[in-house]
Amino acid sequence: xxxxxxxxxxxxxxxxxxRAGLDSVKDVRLTEGKIxxxxxxxxxxxxxxxxxLHLFPGFVDVHAHWRTPGREDEETIETGSASAAxxxxxxxxxxxxxxxxxxxxxxxSGLARRIERxxxxxxxxxxxxxxxxxxxRLTEMRLLREAGAFCVSDDGLGTASAGVLRNGxxxxxxxxLPLILHCxxxxxxxxxxxxxxxxxxxxxxxxxxxxxxxATATALVLAAETGxxxxxxxxxxxLSAALVAFFKNxxxxxxxxxxxxxxxxxxxxxxxxxxxxxxxxxRPDADRDAVGEALRTGALDFVATDxxxxxxxxxxxxxxxxxxxxxxxxxxxxxxxxxxVLAGKLALSRxxxxxxCAPGRWVGEGGxxxxxxxxxxxxxxxxxxxxxxxxxxxSRSSNSPYLGRTLTGRVVGTIVGGxxxxxxxxxxxxxxx
Length: 433
Ligand code: DOR
Prior knowledge:
The chain is 29% helix and 24% strand. The protein has 433 residues and is α/β, with parallel strands linked by helices. It folds into 2 domains: 8-53 and 383-387 and 390-432, Urease, subunit C, domain 1 (Roll), CATH 2.30.40; 57-369, Metal-dependent hydrolases (TIM Barrel, Alpha-Beta Barrel). The longest helix is centred in the middle third of the chain and has 17 residues, at 210-226. The protein is globular and about 60 Å long. The chain starts with 7 loop residues before the first strand and ends with a strand. (4S)-2,6-dioxohexahydropyrimidine-4-carboxylic acid is lined by residues 65, 97, 155-156, 182, 278-279, 306, 308, 324-325. Pfam families: DHOase.
């Protein structure tokens, strides 16, 4: 539950919001859940000393699997939202591949009530595009919207055929719901890792990049034709990124890529560890770098984590048998700051735009540090080095591909609607008053 807001003054933070043109030390006043003043030498009754810290608009993650309903042993709304808050996320979109699947108004409204009670951050619901995610019968999107769905997606699965997808786009458009598309052609995606040299050396069946590229091309062509508002998620190949760029001004289309596709590659296949199975699979270095370049130029609009918790018995298996997916919320900023910003490949301002401003624009709320905007903020220590450890993960699961890695940059506090929802120090971040 998002607690009742009270006034708070964040003092001496290095405020960075490229969209608002802010990049300097400021004081920020939060009043009744909104940003009420950005200035210097401000004083308040309740102050948070942010000397030496950076303050960003809260991150927004449009791709999260909180496994609720059905797999609360892997994640709950409480633990998923706490994990998101620990990563600086103030808003998320929850995917519908749960049990039961979020494909009927009663499941949507039940989930909305649980979010209201249990979530620390602003969680939105993606309902299914097709009943049972089967790619056959369209869901009742107008009713799903009335029940509280924010968008539709069959994430976890690609779409059965172009004709089916085209109908879905037309109905989603008329129902006023955007689509989030997982682009995968299942006639091509027959393996478990990327089909390349690393897969051959390990003797593990691979799926070609075309499994993603063919589906991405189909989705983009249909988005242009139908006018449906379409978001392509977890873009992981050179060609898919180029296709998105080509369609940018020809369709109502946006796209994201993930922290893991930006920082890891298929050389991890040689470990043979199930931990590293993910869908779409980790790609060769050339794809990782091309996707990074597309994020830098804005061809890919933003980052989404595809936070996908799995029980240890589903991951501590050989690659072929493991469930695909990685935790994402808690390491996203640090992994990207360490591997892209500190490596000189991406400006910090573009990273903030890609984690806050652009996804905030996509959901229509947040991602902006300006007077009158919701007081949704992430407070980050850019100098802290920390080692990713399964024992300290806040998620109920621990399947992070960064386990054991030392990263730089750590979220120390997260504020939603003016209230501190994550405080790593556990000491109210030194608030006074
Ligand atoms: O690796 C993945 N895991 N990719 C998906 O598309 C679904 C997700 C999950 O639900 O575990």
